[in-house]
Amino acid sequence: MKLNLNIGNKKYDIELNKTNGGSINIKVDGEEFLFQETKKEKKEPSLAKTSLPKRNFSEKEIKAPISGIISEIFAKEGDVIKQGEKVALLSAMKMENEIISDFDGKIKTALIKQEQTVKEGEILFLLD
Asked: Is 109 helix (H, G, I), strand (E, B) or coil?
């Protein structure tokens, strides 16, 4: 393809050619410029993590959701509890967080004491 381009008072003769290899050859007033066509890789869109980590519900454990200090305990070994029942209070960052049971069951072992510091994910109670 041949073009004539006028910029200001100057006239340019331009010739555009596409080569077999996919590159583009441009001639401007007899001077050649070669541009290689680059292949763009298609990237898969990144997906946001939308699910919580899988939990093993065959082992009935009540764990600390965050690190903090156990300020109050409402259940003890031998108590029968229902799913959704409050079993302890955990103080963290000047806030009281209720620890709620995910299971129905009997508390087999209480692994915490009042005023004990616990870490996130630490097992607080084991249930039968």
From this structure: strand
61-127: CATH number:
2.40.50.100
Check residue 30 and report its DSSP letter. Answer: T
Return d(Cα 71, Cα 114) in angstroms, integer: 6
Sign of CA dihedral 73, 78, 82, 83: positive
Spatial CB neighbours of 67, under 8 Å, sequence gap ≥ 6: 92, 117, 118, 119, 120
Q: Is the pTM of this model over 0.85?
A: no
**Residue 55: predicted pLDDT:** 60
| 118's tokens | 């616990």
Q: What angle do CA 79, 81, 87 make, to 5 degrees?
A: 85
Amino acid sitting at position 119 = K
